[in-house]
Automatic annotation (TrEMBL):
The keyword S-adenosyl-L-methionine does not apply. This is Spore coat protein YutH. It comes from Oceanobacillus picturae. InterPro entries: CotS-like, Kinase-like_dom_sf. One of its GO terms (cellular component) is endospore-forming forespore. PANTHER family: ENDOSPORE COAT-ASSOCIATED PROTEIN YUTH, SPORE COAT PROTEIN I. Keywords: Capsid protein, Virion.
Amino acid sequence: MSMETMLATHYNIQASEKVVLAGRDGYKQDEYVYFTISSDNREIIHMEQAALAYYLLENNYRHTAIPVANTNGDWFTVFQNNTYMVVMVEHLNNITRESNGRSLAAFHTIGTLYSFEPHQISCYGIWKKLWIDKLEAYEKNVPLAAKESPNDYFRMVMDTLPYIIGISENAIQYLQESERENRFDTVDQGTISFQRYTNNLQKSVIWLDDFVFDHPVRDLAEYTRGMLLSDAPSEEIVQFLHDYQSERPLSIFSWRLLYARLLYPVHFFDHFDSVMSGRTLEDPFTTYSSLITMQEEYEKKMRDLYQWVGLDSTSLQIPVLHWL
């Protein structure tokens, strides 16, 4: 039985056509498009994300996917032994050519006004613990996976593992020192943000299952990381950060968090997670080789980042890693 059957049976939704948006199957009825989100063991998380979605819809983010209740008034439906939440979108975003930096700053400002800090999806103030946990899991799981599959891909991963561990430890140490920084401001309040911000606001739908609650630098860093890895010209990166700062000037504490987060090799961990979970359709060997190749250039750009944006790290007493 298909998702159309579930929608018809449990939601009285008679889909007239199927559409695919951002790799997700949608079902159209009148002017609404409905999507299903797998919620197995994630109900509390999805309820917190749902509250954020309704808040954003009320604040004119009309292309936010919001949950709909089933015919029994429940938010979750068990169908073929799986639990689902159904979300709907009425207004798809007509991609605007708004400045990415300014639109993200406006979003973060609205996010800081949200009255209740979520618990399940909040990463605010706990990066150090999360990073250590991630690193320890990686240190444990990579050798196990390499033992089970002694192929070229895992041989290469094992060869580079000491480097990944080393750079992660450097980032954790840099973060630890930055947490003692007392030059912070209102810009450092927690806000609605995304797992990995890749210009989500200007896509056709804002997906609620991408939401986290965190320091706004999370989104700035992840979007900057994407640009650093994609060989975007330095002017583009500087423009993005400048546009953001024109609305929300960053504190010294924010700059240090940004640097720490960019230093932490999330892009390697994300790659490994997608390989281990079987989500990736790409050839892991090729993807990982290109990540390793890009890393040298990435570190060079990291070394110059403060300089690009016109921050005098020496007079501001912001440490820079000179080995980069």
